[in-house]
Amino acid sequence: MNNITIFAIAVSLAMDAFAVSLVGGATIHPLTGRHVFRLAFHFGLFQFLMPIIGWLAGTSVIDYIAAFDHWIAFGLLGLIGSKMIYESFQPTSEITKDISRGCSLVGLSLATSIDALAIGITLSALRVEIWYPSVIIGLVAAGFSIAGIFIGRKGGRFLGKRFELIGGLILIGIGVKILIEHLI
């Protein structure tokens, strides 16, 4: 597998993390280097690990994973997106906007990297060594996350509090996209 193909795969896998990072950049106030690091590190780490897990599982488990992975991603993104939409209508003092902590961070990291698990299974079936592609996938996801945070920060200043509503809709949209892609 050539570098261009690996990079194209990495970019396509990073799009979900990029979209979630846009939301994080717009909704985390005040945004610090710690927030940026946590989001980029976790999205990059999960994108790095999931292809390895998929590769190790190989083709023997594909039937079990393929049966419900899209429902997990849809459910996680739907729950987090719905919570963000609900919070967008609450008074500012009641809103918790930090998606870079705790269960939200782990859930988003897992949900945005489910497709990387399938890529790992595919690479296993193609007998491609996994370490180099996984490192590239993880680094690209981390880089796209950083870019998304700063782009979201700029857009968030213009859109204000309603960006959280838009972000929640985006997360639900990503979940629906994943579900449709797997059901069709």
Mind explaining what this structure looks like?
With 184 residues, this protein is an all-alpha fold. It has helices at 3-27, 33-57, 62-66, 69-88, 102-125, 131-159, 162-183. The protein has one domain (3-183). The chain is built from seven helices and no strands. The model has no long low-confidence stretch (mean pLDDT 81).
Portion in beta strands: under 5%
The biggest beta sheet reads: none
Count of distinct structural domains? 1
Number of strands: 0
In terms of quaternary structure, the protein is: single chain
Gist of the model:
By secondary structure, the protein is mostly helical.
Protein topology:
Elements: H1 3-27, H2 33-57, H3 62-66, H4 69-88, H5 102-125, H6 131-159, H7 162-183
Helix pairs in contact: 1-2, 1-5, 1-6, 1-7, 2-5, 2-6, 4-5, 4-7
What would the keywords be for this entry?
single chain, 184 residues, mainly alpha, 7 helices, 82% helix
